[in-house]
């Protein structure tokens, strides 16, 4: 088992810059990458090609090109595979133009990201057994209570004043790259009637996992006037961090455990949508600088024999107009994807199935740019469609012998049937002859939890069809509002009440005179739940052994003669490393294509020390068994380099021998996408 190793680096470059110009765009490319594997470190040298487009005060677009070199020793983790080829990418961190007294300097921060493979022990995967339930829910990743103290300046107060009251409004917890950010507004009021509003902002530095869900509460704990004009404020911040995951939950035996409502996973499918669209800019432009995805909106609609996933992609287009000014144009582009589902999957039994879209990647590319206004774009959306349904389950208390997790769930407080009878007055129509039919249409039904019970409210539609004196059928509709209180001693304010009507009975009671009655009997059931964070047991047994990776050992030895411009007396240093590699499959062969690179320092026969770089293409024939290997890692395991005997027709040369071993591995995530080395 292997997993990706990621390393980072940073370089800051400062150069003189034309005064009064504006940087429009910076493009970076890796032109050279050298790796030296030491005992405890990895020495990486990167040559970065830089192209800077800038706009002069006259509106002319100019281009500046140069190269930046990065060198640094990175600590080598013990699990990092030594001798493998590494990859690097470069991005712009920031760009700052400093104008001072008619001169200017450009400061450019460049971020580097390195990637490779490191060994990872095989993890036991626990599939759901018969007594477990695969659920899709939120797992608690972190929770904390933080007491924040702050001094508020309030000149109108003195320590002898009456107690001051404080109320927090507009509370919000936000996830930022720096950590968890709380924002709110503090409303202060003194006993003298003096009021004050003060913004409150608290940053809690913390590394936050990707795709996290943050919830939190804030409460004023203490407020005290410590000296004239100063108030000491203490606010308690409680926050919780969740991640949405799929987990096999172990169920309790019959007659044991507590009842919860969980979202049972029905289906999960990774999908790809792509499309092409045209955009017309609001004005003519010289160049399109950058295109970024601002937001993606989505929803799922049930249609006949399928599901319709649709939404909008919000793009920000940055361009330079005809006058040389950089502008941003926001455009909303619709996207729609239809998923065929069999008739039974989206039926009445699945009426309460919840569908959710999680985006993996959204990409937009420019295809064509005509007349300075008409832009053609290619859009691609990678997303995962998840279907889940609420289900009642009894959870067992976890023990020390099984893995556990803490999840967000709804604990069932009470479940009760209810019956409600009401007589609804109905006015007799003037042209009434005989009643034909009376039926009910479901309307709004809601339940609000209160202390000691549930307040129920229903607003159905009752349809009455009768025959008039002209022997024609007429229809009368009326929507009564029905409300009553149903006792439930265990219920508290803040609980959630789900109400369902399971049965009903309608009957028209005719009386002498004009006022009649509709007798209505409602039969239903309500469930009261309360938010809880139970520790659950993850159930299952180790999966059956997968098909083993090929045991065929593959070693490639490459030998060649490297010509040098000068005759060699002695090789001072020699270092080799691997460049990029890829697998090539033809109708008859399966090949490994790559590059071996090296650096040689040698002493010539003229007594001068010289430096020489080596680049050698490598082709190796692979066994067909390696075609099914998810990850194939070439590793440089040894080399040899020595001078050749000088001949009359040759002035210099060295003999090189390289040994490369191939590691056949599987990625850490068995359900992840295939990653080829």
Explain what the structure shows:
By secondary structure, the protein is mainly beta. The chain folds into 5 domains: 2-119, no CATH class; 143-244, no CATH class; 264-390, no CATH class; 416-526, no CATH class; 555-665, no CATH class. The protein contains no helices and 33 strands. The strands form 10 sheets. The protein has a 6-stranded antiparallel beta sheet, with no helix packed on it.
Mean pLDDT: 83
Number of helices: 0
Number of strands: 33
The proportion of residues forming helix, as a percent range, comes to: under 10%
Radius of gyration: 36 Å
Structural class: mainly beta
- What amount of the residues lies in strands? over 45%
Low-confidence stretches: 343-351, 541-549, 669-677
Number of domains: 5
In whole angstroms, the N-to-C terminal distance is 14 Å
Main sheet summary: 6 strands, antiparallel
Strands in their spatial order, largest beta sheet: 17-18-13-20-26-25
Give the overall silhouette.
elongated
Task: Reconstruct the topology from this structure.
Blueprint: E1 2-17, E2 22-37, E3 41-55, E4 61-75, E5 87-100, E6 103-119, E7 132-153, E8 165-176, E9 179-189, E10 195-205, E11 212-227, E12 230-250, E13 258-280, E14 285-303, E15 306-321, E16 326-340, E17 354-370, E18 374-395, E19 404-406, E20 409-427, E21 432-450, E22 453-468, E23 473-478, E24 482-487, E25 496-509, E26 515-532, E27 535-537, E28 555-563, E29 568-585, E30 590-604, E31 609-621, E32 631-643, E33 653-665
Antiparallel strand pairs: 1-6, 2-3, 3-4, 5-6, 7-12, 8-9, 9-10, 11-12, 13-18, 13-20, 14-15, 15-16, 17-18, 19-27, 20-26, 21-22, 22-23, 22-24, 25-26, 28-33, 29-30, 30-31, 32-33
